[in-house]
Amino acid sequence: MRRNIVRVCVLVALAVGPLLAQHTADPVELDTGARIYSSTCNSCHGPEGDQVSGVDLKKGQFRHASNDDELARIIQDGIPGTAMPPNNIGRNLVALVAYLHAMRDFKTRKVALGEARGGRAIFEGKGGCTDCHRVNGKGSHLALDLSDIGSIRTPSYLEDALLDPKSTDLPQHRFIRAVTRTGEVITGRRLNEDTLTVQIIDSKERLLSLTKADLKEYAIEKDPRMPPYRDKLTDGERADLIAYLVSLKGPANGGGGGGRGGRGGRGGRGQ
Amino acid sequence: MRYRRFVLLVLAGAALNAQVTYERLLHASREPQNWLTYSGSYLSQRYSTLDRITPANVKNLEMKWVFQADSIQKMEATPIVVDGVMYVTQAPNDVVALDARTGRIFWVYQYRVSPDARVCCGQVNRGLAIHGNTLFMGTIDAHLVALDAKNGRLLWDTQVADPKLGYSITQAPLVVKDKVVIGPAGGEYGIRGFFAAYDVATGNQAWRFYTVPGPGEPGNETWAGDSWKHGSAGSWVTGSYDPDLNLVYWGTTNPGPDYNPDVRAGDNLYSCSVVALDADTGKLKWHFQFTPSDSSDWDAAQVPVLADLDWNGTRRKVMLWANRNGFFYVLDRTTGKFMRGSPFVYQNWAASLDENGRPIRSSNSLPTLEGTKLYPGMQGGTNWYSPSWSPHTGLFYVAAWKDYYSYFSKLPVAYNEGQNYFGGATKSAVQPIRRGAINTWTDVAGHGEIIALDPYTGKEKWAFKMHDVTDSGILTTAADVLFTGSREGYFWALDARTGTPLWHATTGGQISSTAVTYMVDGQQYVAISANHALFAFGLR
Lengths: 271, 540
Fold this sequence. Notes:
Chain A is an alpha+beta fold. Chain A is about 35% helix and about 15% strand.
């Protein structure tokens, strides 16, 4: 066993040394890493890397590793007493660690970034974004809080979301429309749902839990509420707005950021 | 009433020191106050003749006690109950004996799992077997241990296989006569699967049957080259036994590697099959392969449900099987002959079954580098969740995943000892094993249903639809009450005749197990685990 540890340490040193020196991994390596991720890690960690509680691979948030050495060791040895198994992937360890770092930006395109300051003015003014969205305590709770959107979404994803919201719409962003037995119409964003109930934040920013049996009508809207901004902003304004969104990294201490259910790929990408 | 309770108490007292003989196991249905094996009896119907809880009074169920396991792993175990004492495992491999009336603990046995243990899908255990005063448990480091049921002391410990090679045991063993039968899991690690029987007194191996035939054995020709060596075909859900035929029935898992059939050209016997073995010798009597050359991880990890049916005027010994591949089969369990089969969920991988029950594959149903979209998805139309057969309603009940798909992709693969041997990957909208607290998916992702199937036609008599998928099996009773759980944490009682929901409780955790029912002091209990706690309910 002890010999094993020594061997692993040597392996890890060999594996991670070049990686750290390289800093930017080449596309072929990332592709290899992505494949290993998909065949080895995906079934537990999920395509977005956030399915194990307390771990968000895309954000670089781990429970047991604080640097690449530890990360590589954990991939190699597993974590006794947990569901994390050892994975002898040999030389591919480098590619996998590289991919974990690049996961967020994997297969993205270059997007023009303007001035974040101008972008903020558009966000809070002409764009009308705060009518639904909220950043650092300002704006509505109705749609997603975007205070840390820059650390979880790439510029190209944000551009897609502005030009064609339908293309980036996820089930967890859907709005619902319900009519109670007394005829009251309730609309809001769906936060959670099961066979008997649905939890929403409604247009009056109330957290509501509705019992389906008490509703006359209940439907999940098919299209996102977010309007396309293709013709609403000039190219320059859009570049500014994206620069502003990219600059939003959440609270400085890295904590907080609101309820876990509010965003992320949990509800299932690729529906 | 008073007199009856007194009599029951005396009977219970008399039974207290009685050993669980093979005779008792053979006639388990004669003592419905107990739950003596994983599936309740050798026929594995998950059906109880207890009838104090009825569709009319089930609304009066209340929680009697809860046992919080000292483990953060989810409880998949089915408890066994013997004369007022419940034995259950606490993941991965502790055993707890508790009072089935109060949940108070008599003793705890702690097994130290080797760091070599590797499991694909969580450090879980599905329960115990009992014979005499001895309990048996398989461990995730591939040991079989025997414990004294009175004090939890270890009696013997037999290594079944090498955990470093990916062998593990998660299923509950089955005692037949003086032997305890078990098989290893490890279908994601390129093991060579087998079933083995051990002497209940000594732990010495009595026989072993390899589910992947070696050179010179019939079936080896269904594996290209040396691929049989890592052909997998493990098992992880307990089998059944027909005492008249003296046959043990067990389902086997996927061939290895999971998603790349190119390296193992052929049917890959006896993967994704049910095998019928002589209980005394382990000799193969017959086999039936549900999915030849599987490339979708569609394990036959289902409990073989044995029933006797009138079939075109003849009494037939049959086996009812809703398979992970989306088809519902009726087999003759004397010969293994296919009697009928049809899909019970939407599926697009097979055009039909031929007259022998062999699937005729649709074109483009094999994995590709880019990914092939198949219904059902990787977790299947159903999986390991116990089905139930009610002789009273004549219906077969299945926990189904409807309209659920995965993309299956194939990758080059090489075997490495003790490492994942997938040869590909899958992607679905539904999280495969468990999910967090939030569910915001839409109908496109798929959903769970409890369905009641007519064995003669394969048609659905009724369906109970859930928002989420479900990992919980089904219990039915002579009063026509059906109990099941859900990922959402609801513990449901449905009317077994109509599917109408009668009652539910919120457990607050994903239910990945099947309920049992038993009786102590004239009170019928129904117990279910959710996440890492076990709840017992009884009438107010």
